[in-house]
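Why do we bother with holo predictions? Because pocket geometry can differ from the apo form. Keep that in mind while you read this record for calcium ion.
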Amino acid sequence: MFSFRNVVLTTLSTLALAAGMAPAAYAQDSELAKELEKRFAAADKDKDGKLTVEEAKAMPRVSKNFSRIDKDKLGYVTLDQIKAMMK
Ligand SMILES: [Ca+2]
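The structure, written out:
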């Protein structure tokens, strides 16, 4: 039998769960992104928004995966490409 009360309760607990979970996950994500951006900026010696093979050495994980991140073989990787790799 359809119960309006049950639907409301289910909806409320789903919302509460979503509200409780989402900010934590978001905070962690943005924290990681901030850390990554900081390390990228430090590694990007000439501040052109790209890391060459040489610059990428400051970020071992990027350096190790350089050819995989540099999909188009341009000789540099961008922050967006690194973020995409981390996912
Ligand atoms: Ca650079």
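Helices lie at 4-43, 53-56, 60-64, 66-69, 79-86.
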